[in-house]
Write a structure and sequence with these properties.
The complex is a heterodimer of chains A (197) and B (223). Chain A has 197 residues and is mainly alpha-helical. In chain A, 78% of the residues lie in helices and 0% in strands. In chain A, helix 2 (39-64) runs antiparallel to helix 5 (111-123) and helix 4 packs antiparallel against helix 5 (111-123). Chain B contains ten helices and no strands. In chain B, helix 8 (121-151) packs across helix 9. Chain B is flat and about 55 Å long. At the A-B interface, helix 1, helix 2, helix 3, helix 7 and helix 8 of A face helix 1, helix 4, helix 5, helix 6 and helix 8 of B.
Amino acid sequence: MSRESSSKLSMKDIIIASVLGVICIAIRFLFMILGGILPVAWFASHMFDAIFIGPVYMLIVAKTRRTGPVFVISLVTGIIFISAAISIVVSEIIAGILAELALRKGKFENKFWIMISYVIFSFGFIGDFYLLWFHKESFLKYSENFMNAEYLDALSRLVSVPTMIFIIASILIGSLAGGFLGFKLMRKHFVKAGVAQ
Amino acid sequence: MYGKSRGLDPRIGMILIILSVVIVFSHTKLYIEWIFMSSILFLMYCFGVRKTMFQILAGYLVLCVIQVLVIPNVNVTLASMISVAVYFKMIFPCGAAVALFCATTPVRVLLEAFRRMHIPLSVSVAVAVSARYFPTLKDELTAIWNAMRLRNIKGMEQKIESMYVPLLMSAVKTGEELAQSAIVRGIENPAPKTSIVEIRIRLLDVLVLVYFLLLAGAAIWLG
């Protein structure tokens, strides 16, 4: 097959990346639904996302080693989750570009830069919470129509600055753990099976 | 006709999704939301996707009941636990618009619409592959789950690993096969592509678009 070392993105890379991207999206969807049952789980869901997507991300990087697939996956994730919050698209595009830059910096091989880019990629999904953080007042006002004050008080206590810091820290920890899990699974299974080098 | 779209023109469908996002995030009056929901459900009924329609309706009613009857009547801790149901109910109209779009637009029609809109091939292929792979993913998961039950695998870590690794392996394999078949069919040919599917904006599309534009305008104006 003509896979010379050109940096041009081939259709094959795109298709493999989008099949793996579907797994990323499915994982996010699953944890979003779990988060629908408990708000606390919703706040922690990004950490679990980051842990479980790690191996997929490492596989994508190892299979393609080109600029583009990560950005395309970010974009498609943003488009699919547009119905959850419009800000996801914006944050996903920014994170996709930054993650690609980090990957380029490490020439798709340096583990440190792959890790950095994965952390950035994980933060792309944070747009999910934009509405609750920055439009809290309008969200609460909208909810006032049909809910009691006691309940809204509980909600607004739940959405505060410490929660925000907690979420950011949890995503950071989750993405680091996911990245290491990804490296481990790559070594243990995928390189051995000859799926990736 | 070959691969005929059952519903609206895909481009109008996309505009409809954007309008639904506008309506939801303008935090408008509740009755506008209800008008929007019933219009979408009516369109679903007209285009013959009744099963999806009833699922959406049932989901919406359950969330409404939770919001109106359950939350004000339970204590605060429990209420804050199910508070996300309110958020889900709030974004439900977008979900309904997306469901209408997905149920009435075959992938080939969507690709033709993307081509007309001059969206880069890499993005439209990624969207098409994602749409096609989702149902396969469910089958693969079921197969792996059954194989795991057969081998009687114990332990959380073991379970996750033996679920995850075969899934990724098969995804890579499927991706490679899909890529080969697409390349054989000439996806990398630089010549401009043509399609057997014809899409055009009909009178019905224009009427629906005007109706939803007015609704979105009303939502912003009243909200």
